[in-house]
Amino acid sequence: MAAEPEPLDDPSMIWDETKVEQVVGDPRYVAGVTMKLEGDYEGAISFFSELLAIHEGEAPPPVHLAPLYFQYGSTILCEKESNAVETQAVAAEPKEDEGSGSSSSSTSPPPAKRARVVKVEDKHEAPRGSGPHSPHSPHSQEDTGGTGGEDLQDPTLAAPGSGEDPRAAEEGGEGEDDGEEEEDDDEELAWKLLDVARDLFQQALSSLKAGLPVDTAKATMHVRSELARTVSRMGDLNMVTGHFGDALVEYEQVLKLREEERDTSVDGICRLVDTNIQVACAYLEHVVQHGETDVVISATSGEQVKVAEASDVRGQMLAYFDRAKSLLQSLVSRLAEERAKISDDEKKSICVMYQLLNDFTVRLSGVSEAQEGD
């Protein structure tokens, strides 16, 4: 008979729903989430930073702060993604040719869109996919550690009690170099916050598996879902920074967590579809940047690790895409057979998934044409 897991001695590492509700029910947290959904990322960041500053004396951070770390890091990433979309839109606008008066646009197709299936009413968000070779921070060779405690001492995080956006202290520089440094700092901060959230959710899962608290089934399902969401955002961050191999590893970890959920609801299947598309997109962007070469990442030890053979890249990309398409078609067929009534939000999720499949097809076609032209 298998031995029972040893109980955890540190209460801060135990998933306590009451303490979690105190965090996500804090007016600053609620205001931050609301502003994030409205697209006011700077305002949301200020609220999350202020709330985190109150708890920064706690090291290592307790697991009930995982949703806060996630929201803070995810919001910084949302702001970066929004800026990237605006930049792409400007670059894609037809420009008048001074010589002929005709208009021209870039022949390089834009990256495929990647949506996140997140319920608007969800207040929680979350954490960590542990693999044998966890990707390092895009701008740091240092291992942030398992608990994230060292991150709290980083000068880029807000000083306890300051309530200030940690990025504000570094403003004032001018010029292109200063802008690039600020962008790098934002990426680094987002990575650290998400990495701490991932560690905390992973620790929460461990506490639940140890039987703490007693009623663990519902809590385990919730924490696993939050863990998948956090790892997915870390994959998104790697996509934004051009680390497609690292993104691939993160998304595959998310896919494993999603499959463990065994959620056959419309939202559950759409999340699976979304994640399969994310994996396919990571492969595709690798092909765009590096051709059909080996997919290699750097492990925390500095060792180069091959995660996909060059000969398998295109086949794997198409396999994940076909899997996404099959899952969505099966869902729609099942709903039709059952004559199931679904909500407007569920209908919207299905439509978004079809749009993502179409976006990927268009992107792949554009890439193939560009390669043939070369």
Automatic annotation (TrEMBL):
Gene3D superfamilies: Tetratricopeptide repeat domain
Signal peptide: none
Keyword GTP-binding appears in the UniProt entry: no
Biased amino acid composition, Acidic residues: 171-187
UniProt record, GO biological process: CENP-A containing chromatin assembly; DNA replication-dependent chromatin assembly
Domain of life the protein comes from: Eukaryota
Comp. bias (Basic and acidic residues): 118-127
Keyword entries, A-Z: Repeat, TPR repeat
InterPro entries, sorted: NASP-like, TPR-like_helical_dom_sf
PANTHER family per UniProt: NUCLEAR AUTOANTIGENIC SPERM PROTEIN, NUCLEAR AUTOANTIGENIC SPERM PROTEIN NASP -RELATED
Record protein name field: Tetratricopeptide SHNi-TPR domain-containing protein
Source organism of this protein record: Rhizochromulina marina
